[in-house]
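The authors assume throughout that readers already know how a fold can be written as discrete tokens. In essence, backbone conformation is discretised, so a fold becomes a row of integers matching the chain in length. A single example would do more here than another paragraph of explanation. For illustration, here is how one protein appears when written out as sequence plus structure tokens:

…
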Amino acid sequence: MIYHSLLVLLGSFFGFANPIEQFPPAALLVPGGLYLLGLGAQSPGQAMRRGWVAGGLGAGASLYWVAVPVHDFAYVPWALAAPCAVLLGMTLGFFSGLYSMACQHVSRRLPLLPAALFAGMVWGLLEAAKGHALTGFPWLVLPAAFAPWPLLIQGLSTVGSWGLAGVLAMAAASWAHGRWLKHGVGASALPGAFLGLVVMAALFLHGVAVLQEPQTSDGTALVAVVQGNVDQSVKWNEAYQQETIDRYVSLSRSLVTQHAQTPPKVLVWPETSMPFYFQEPGDASQQVRSLAADLGVPVLLGAPGYDRDLDSNQYRFFNRAYLLGADGAIQSYYEKEHLVPFGEYIPFGKHLTFLKKLVEGPGDFTPGVQVAPLSLGHLSMGVLICYETIFPELAQKRVAQGANVLVNLSNDAWFGKTAAPTQHLHLAVLRAVEQRRSVVRATNTGISAVIRPTGVIRTPTRLFETTVFAVETELMASHTLFHRWHNAILPVMAGLSIICYLWSRIAPCRTPSKGAHYS
């Protein structure tokens, strides 16, 4: 049991982005180790406990960065901040426990292929469940580990993140089932290893075929990104407001000057790059409006906003992205609809008044209602603010509304020089491939980048770097297979898992021999 738990821990840390070195295939040790923990348990309850602990500790190790904003910005001592990562990890570990329990109850009764298929489908369904339970946190999803290797994630455009997660977990379960048969009932482990290799080879060859095809687009647009690198500790201090404006204005002027012959179609600034109510008239907002008018270049920027609820006569606050036209006037805006719990609002805030938000800002935000793409001629930008990019359904919604490029405005300064910004970037890669849309990512302190529709990351910035760049960005209007049939993917996976379950009820139990040293 300790050996298999160690596999899960190492896979969780080294398979995903980390401060040492990432090796994507190591992530397969997570479903593989959890599978072995399940099959080695004597009961479903024991499998649940083992999987929960191993998966929770592994997730907590990979999410170590959660403690950084709690300590640095909520001023909680390290002794109390560090357990926050463990707590979040154990929350995600609950799904790991369910996976091990399901494998113990079903896969040990099945031959190799249906056992691996069942495990893969259950894994994909549980990753989907993580995206909805308790407001959703689909962070350490299996395909994200392979974002640095675009060849292996092209299947996202067909089956999406949950489907590809199932395929990858099936490969891991094939290997694990072979090991279990070898140590448990004396059968050869080679068929399991071979099946796992076949699955991974199929993903690789599919990726080669897709990336060798000519990528046709519906035109391009020169999109410019400004990474202001404003210190988070002073960002909301009014005394530094003018310095922030000056920095973004100066960087933007410099960039447009460099591209004087072919100005950018739009300047993209990060989430809450302007830390004041931009909708209010005044010198602060006027300086930015004048910049857009002087340069003749539209600006997409992040800033808080508000309105008054006519029913309650109370103010509602929003995390917005404002689009300024080439004349400097507000042309339209987007409001973030999926908010960060405890960061942008307090869940059950009426009953948990003793808690305060970790994020500095104007107050509890309200989920937005203005979520349509922001258009500039042939450029239609589907906006995803901050961690909205980790939810497949939100990117799906933007593209369904007509977006031909996705724009992710974020501020990952909270997490310092940790693995969080890289993990966040890798999740944005998944959205690019699923929808075959370029993703323009503008962040305060990095990592800013443009992600091609194939998942290739272009011009990634360094963390805590003040910089600007402009990239000719592909605009796509066609829809992927995933976009067209996304509603059927989870039902198909559920149906396959049910068929395998029914098969297991009539199959003989393949119990390990008493003399086998398995766990």
